[in-house]
Design a protein that fits this description.
It is built from seven helices and four strands. The protein is mainly alpha-helical.
């Protein structure tokens, strides 16, 4: 998605990416679409980057950024753990087989958050333009949550190392899982 500054055509494409069937939340939340997280800032950031006069470098960590939190949370809704990879974990030494890269970069994931819980955590995150983005991000997450959790017939949360705290969060989200027929939780504490 084009970032600021955007020309008129880029702004139109940005708007399309936030709405309807092509919405980025559909892409990030799709159960069979890989989510590749780039959790490390470039070495020396923000040196070498040019920002518009009214913008500044966002030095927040991946975990501290609002959009990253949203994209990650949307990706955590229904994906199996093998579909969420953290490229910041990649050492570059296991490039021979895809399975080795997946094992090295498997990010794990937190349980799906209800929209009110997501919104309260989101309020603590950093945005380049919080006034412009906060309501958009809340709406994107709520729509993805309703679609993915509400319509899921099967959820697989196996091999994530979850304990009681994560299961309590999951239980709150499962109230919205009206179509659920199968829940897999194997290999968790």
């Amino acid at each position: 998605m084009f970032q600021h500054p955007r020309d008129a055509k880029q702004n139109e494409l940005f708007g399309i990416a936030l709405k309807g069937e092509v919405c980025i939340s559909n892409l990030y939340s799709h159960p069979y679409c890989w989510l590749l997280k780039s959790t490390q800032l470039p070495v020396g950031y923000p040196a070498g980057f040019t920002f518009p006069p009214d913008k500044h470098a966002n030095r927040a960590t991946y975990e501290g950024r609002g959009w990253c939190f949203c994209e990650s949370s949307v990706g955590n809704l229904v994906k199996q753990s093998d579909f969420v990879l953290d490229l910041g974990l990649f050492s570059g030494t296991t490039t021979r087989f895809l399975g080795d890269v997946i094992d090295e970069c498997k990010a794990g994931r937190s349980p799906p958050l209800t929209p009110p819980v997501f919104n309260s955590i989101l309020e603590t995150k950093s945005f380049t333009s919080k006034n412009a983005d906060l309501d958009k991000v809340k709406a994107l997450y709520a729509g993805a949550f309703e679609q993915r959790i509400g319509q899921a017939e099967r959820l697989d949360f196996g091999r994530l190392g979850w304990a009681d705290a994560e299961v309590k969060v999951l239980c709150k989200a499962l109230h919205a899982a009206k179509a659920l027929r199968s829940l897999s939780m194997y290999s968790n504490a």
